[in-house]
Every structure is written in C-alpha cells, then in structure tokens.
C-alpha cells in the first residue's frame, strides 16, 4: 500500500478498515496494531477545492494529534491510549477490543450498572489527567472511548484536543 506517497511494507484494503471519521481512517494492522491515517485525496485526477481543503485539514489534524500523543506518552495514564509509533503519515497504536459506542450497540441498558460506574470513573480520571497537563479533550463521546481486552476505558482520538482555558 502507498500512503501519502510512501510505500508501506504491508497491504491495506477496505476490509482492513476499522473505522473512519471526518479527517482520518483507522486500519487494522494484524490483530494487535491499528494505524490511524489522514484522509488524502489522490492528485492524479482534478480535485475540487473542498477535497484539497479536506486533505490539508486531515494532515494538520493528524500532526496536532501526534503532538498530544507525544506529551501523553511522556506522562502515561492507565485510561488514556498510548501510541506505539508515529511517522509523518500516521499513528500506530495498540488495537483495542472496540469502542464503547460499538459495545453498547442499540441497548445501553444491557451494560451492568457496576461496569458503567467503573467506566465513568475511568473516563473522569482520564479527563482529569488531561486537565493536569493543561488540555481539554474536546470530543469525549462513546466513539472516542475505547475498551481494552479487560473492559477498561482507553480515551483516544485527540485531534480535537485544545489547551485548557
């Protein structure tokens, strides 16, 4: 696969896509690793102004998120996702079980009350940790709240993160 002009040592297809958002796509790289990459439109066809703008916004968003992850990797927290590696074209991270959004499905009441309470405490602890470093997540929601294999919260997706205040 070629990602933003760089040849990667593996092949990714739409079958490997775990999720996508307004500025990025997340791919599975095997069973343990995920890659978050910006959405870039190929310039081999005429692009609209909107596509050019979206590509630039996507690259800038990933760049900002990498800076946040650098800070968070230096100051880890058990309920904040840590990255494995990042390069100009993306962020490699541990692959989680799923998001709270996917786990809940259409029936949030199916999650036992003690587990929901633990998740709220873990999420509050992660948000407090961000605040101690002068940051506000800016987009805490079930889709950005991941679950590890032990059903613990891992707050992720820091492209909307801003300085507090």
Automatic annotation (TrEMBL):
A GO MF label: ATP binding
Gene3D superfamilies listed in its UniProt record: Transferase(Phosphotransferase) domain 1
Domain Protein kinase: 12-165
Keywords: ATP-binding, Kinase, Nucleotide-binding, Transferase
Record's protein name: Protein kinase domain-containing protein
